[in-house]
Design a protein that fits this description.
GO terms for molecular function: DNA binding; sigma factor activity. Belongs to the sigma-70 factor family. ECF subfamily. Keywords: Sigma factor, Transcription, Transcription regulation. This protein is of the alpha+beta class. The protein has three domains: 1-104, no CATH class; 107-164, Arc Repressor Mutant, subunit A (Orthogonal Bundle); 166-287, Nuclear Transport Factor 2, Chain: A, CATH 3.10.450. It is 53% helix and 16% strand. The chain contains 14 helices and six strands. Strands 2-1-6-5-4-3 form a six-stranded mixed beta sheet, with helices on both faces. A hairpin with a 2-residue loop joins strand 5 and strand 6 (270-277). The chain is globular, with a radius of gyration of 21 Å.
Amino acid sequence: MDHAESVSIAELLDERRYLLDVAYWMLGSTDEAEWVVGETYRRWYALSDAKRHEIPAPRAWLAKIAGGICLNRLALPDRDVTGADEEHLTRAGAAAKAQAGLENEVSRVLLDALDTLSPAERAAFVLNDVFGMTLDAVADIVGRTEPETTDLADRAREQLRGRRSRPVSSQRNDTVARALRHACVTQDAVLLASLLCTQVTAFFDGGGKVRALTRPVHGREQVAHSLLTFLACRPRTDLAVQSVNGRTGLVVRYHDQVAAVISLDIDDQRITQVWVVLNPDKLRSWNQPANPAPGARRSLS
């Protein structure tokens, strides 16, 4: 039985939307994203029936192919579209614009910041941080080792954070972090919204090992809702102010184990980015038997 016949229409449409999201985050263009997805499916159906049946996870295979195509396009000097590509993109444009507002989900400011990264850095960040692909899968796409891919993603994060926010004083950072904690503990939506800039973006890094949001959340209202939901008070759950990467952040504990670490980027008076790390591998150092006292500096690897 062919793959398309063995799954529901909802799953097929969700698969296509996922691929469009991957391609859009990678390239920043709905037209190009539509072209990439079309080319990805063309390669799928170019396989023999036997080859397709040998693929245990078609969606993962398709995502890998789409990521590779995007990486190749990013490497083009001017990313010019010529010949058959141009014709395909022209036809795809109308269909792409009918998609449910991908541009509204990814801020143009963030896409412009992504454009400053090298193709490999952008691929590592988008595929690992945004879509939660495992490092080995991302390494396969970018043609690097896992440690090299980790370095690429780390460099991308640092560049994005440096570009999108201007450092504020430690005192201001501490004040905002404590206000954020208070707003989340008391479920004060008005206070929380006042702490966020209009174009705020929240990243939830589950590393594919925790069921976290699969895409960054963008916009004051959406981020506020996500944080209030995520940090709502629950039994045996504690939200504390603590040093994260040398600046005041938040640490979530469940049954005395660190379950999430939150760092903030603040520009002048408001939060521009929220980085929520839920990946158990990255939290390993936070759950060592001898944790330092609250306020001691800890960093995320």
